[in-house]
Amino acid sequence: MDVARNYYAPSDIMHTIDALAWNKMNRLHLHATDAQSWPLDIPALPNLSRKGAYRRGLSYSPKDLGQIQEYGMYRGVEVVVEIDMPGHTSSIAFSNPDLITGFNQRNWSDYAAEPPSGSLKLNSSAVYTFLSTLWQDLLPRVLPYSAYFYTGGDEVNANVYTLDETVRSNDSEILQPLLQRFVDFNHDYVRAAGMTPVVWQEMLLDWNLTLGKDVVVQTWLSDEAVAETVKKGHKVLAGNYNYW
Fold first, then answer.
1. In 8-21, which positions are buried (b, 16+ CB within 10 angstroms) versus exposed (e)?
2. In this predicted structure, what is the pLDDT of residue 244?
3. Edge-to-edge, what's the strand order for the sheet holding 196-200?
4. What is the pLDDT averaged over residues 207-214?
5. How far is C-alpha 176 from the chain's CA centre?
6. 143: closest CA among 68, 75, 66, 42?
């Protein structure tokens, strides 16, 4: 359920959980943030939603998120949260412009899958400081209700890093080790919090990252990606977008 591109009130999310439970489904993937908006309140980083949500009042407080997850738990539906990155993060620029490269370029299709363009910088110490603060705030609150956490990884556009002063390249040989360090850093936090990381297929199949054997990979671009992912030794969530 994408609550970043389209805001839904907590009550509407709970209605969706009811529908899932009635149809014997037991997971809700909550795509919590994206390029268009950051509707998730992070008390340690209050300007993220204050400036990144569509408007004041269209964000989820820690209490809201906890109630949504608890509501799911009592109905046998595990609410799994996703913070997509390093792409799909341009909403961060409204509060932390120094963390994002290629924000809102007019020729956005050169730098992103959809407007507004913008990705977290890949070789910035400030980004890692930001991520540490984010994970230390959010992950302990998510843990009581879920065994999994999505760290994203889809549709990373190499060209945007030609605009990143910490990288200045779209060469995969330069970007791949930086992405590896980025993903390892995030997954270390997820594991330390007691959860299993989930990523989109591109991290494994396009960027050829070395992922821990515990990492679950969600495929979405083809049926062939399922076989490729299993062959590499990972559990798969299959969701070919051509059928949805």
1. bebeebbebbeebb
2. 72
3. 27-33, 78-83, 148-152, 196-200, 216-219, 236-238
4. 97
5. 19
6. 66
Q: What is the average pLDDT across 137-154?
A: 97
CA distances from 43 to 39, 50, 51, 179 (A): 12, 10, 13, 27
215, pLDDT greater than 90: yes
Query: Over the stretch 17-72, which tens digit does the pLDDT of each residue have?
Result: 999 999 999 999 999 999 999 999 999 999 999 999 999 999 999 999 999 999 99
pLDDT computed for residue 109 by the predictor: 96
